[in-house]
Amino acid sequence: MFKRKVKKVQKQQKEKKKRKPQWGLFFDKVRHFFSLTPKSDRIVTLAVLLLVLCGTVMIISTNVGGTTSNANIVLMTTIRQVVYLVISFLFMWAANHIFNFKWFSKAQNMILIFAFIFMLMPLAFAASGGSHAWIRLPGGVTIQPAEFAKPLLILVFATSLYQARKDASMTRHWQILFRKPFICWAMLMVGIVLQHDYGTGFIISFIFFICLMIPAYPQMETFQKWLRRIIGTVFIVALVLFWVTDIGTSILSHTPLAHIATRIENAKNPYTDVYGSGYQPANALYGIGSGGLFGRGIGGSLRKYGYLTQADNDYILAVIIEETGIFGLGILSLLYGLLIYRFFYYAFKTNEFTYKTVLVGSSAYLFIHFVLNVGGVSGLIPSTGVPLLFISSGGSSLMAAFITIGLCQQCISQIRLKEMKSNAYRIR
User: Fold this and answer.
1) Are the beta carbons of 97 and 414 closer than 8 angstroms?
2) CA 296, CA 283: separation in Å to the nearest integer?
3) Interatomic CA distance for residues 339 and 335, integer angstroms
């Protein structure tokens, strides 16, 4: 009786497919092809879409301020942003569907060599803002290799743990286990120091140390304990030298890193040189202060009209708060918090350290970007030139962030499928 009902339902479904127009079937196939893997987290997808939508609207809004000198800038910005989004989505799809740790572990050495060369390529181009961080292509297109280094470092960590599953000798000595990640981090840091992009260097180091803190093996507990103590001590000493007193900034001001000392002074009080080095931080604070609880309304910002030269990039948050108020900042914080919460939720749910590393490393990536950007714009910490992921303009950061989301969704899909199989086995 049950088999007859199943056959009847299958027959009805076939008849529906026959009646469906060919173009309908075509679009179904296209939608299925470009969709994420089964059992991906829809909450993560929704949060990313809302962040991207908010970012696109605000990028277009901030560029209205440039219409005084270029009437076509809004149209050009919209087209450019759509192109970046399409390319970013394709990268996310590839990371979600095509990537696997098996072939990455085999090609890892070649990828690291290519990554190091890629990191050195910007040195052949002119500096911008004191940093040689961009590869400049014809048509005004730029690529920032350091943005792609962040998901790469997470993958190298995760791949080491993937290889350890097949090679038991790696787990006996954790120094061997994390040799490749350390080499990767050191290579990336060499390129970043040569580029003078210290904000990115801090982010990559933060991701590196967070991944090291994941309790993968008991043999690492002593090392992790001492590493936490060292980092805590360095943080307290730096806080005293650079924030509580002026000892650190006075020393830095007589070195090639004098611009960092200037940024620290601007964070303490940008109004001491409001028409010089404190111009952007001061105007960002003016914008934030005038936003109030609900802001001036979309398009109502005054600071984007020449007062903030990086209104659609590093300082886009100042325009967002000016136009949407503290309420807008709260919504953004909620969406970022939701992403990080979902990643940690699945990281604690799985015993597979490969997936755990990807999810925790990606959470660290999102968290530190958010903290550095919000802190820099609000003057709580020195400005580091770090973009607000999914919100700020810039194709490289958007693509790197989408790659990270694609990798996380693949890990989440595998965790959920494995959970379903184990539940089905228990029922049997």
Assistant:
1) no
2) 16
3) 6
Taking the mean position of all CA atoms in its chain, how far away is CA 372? 12
Q: List beta partners, residue 91.
A: none
Q: CA end-to-end span of the chain, whole Å?
A: 23
Per-residue pLDDT of the chain (428 residues; tens, 9 = 90+): 545 654 554 566 556 555 555 555 454 544 554 456 667 889 999 999 999 999 999 998 888 766 556 667 778 888 888 999 999 999 999 999 988 888 898 899 999 999 999 999 999 888 777 788 889 888 778 899 999 999 999 999 999 888 877 766 665 666 677 888 999 999 999 999 999 888 899 999 999 999 988 876 777 778 888 888 999 999 899 888 888 888 888 888 888 778 788 888 888 888 887 888 888 888 888 888 888 888 888 888 888 887 887 778 888 999 999 999 999 999 999 999 999 999 999 999 988 889 999 999 999 999 999 999 999 998 888 888 889 999 998 889 999 999 999 999 999 999 988 877 766 655 55
Phi, psi angles (nearest 5°) of residue 298: -60, 125
Instruction: Supply the Cα-derived Rg of the chain in whole angstroms.
Output: 24
What span, in angstroms and rounded, lies between the C-alpha atoms of 245 and 265?
11
Dist CA 238 CA 251 (whole Å): 13
User: What residues contact residue 20 under an 8 Å CB cut-off, 6+ apart?
Assistant: none
Helix (H, G, I), strand (E, B) or coil at 17: helix
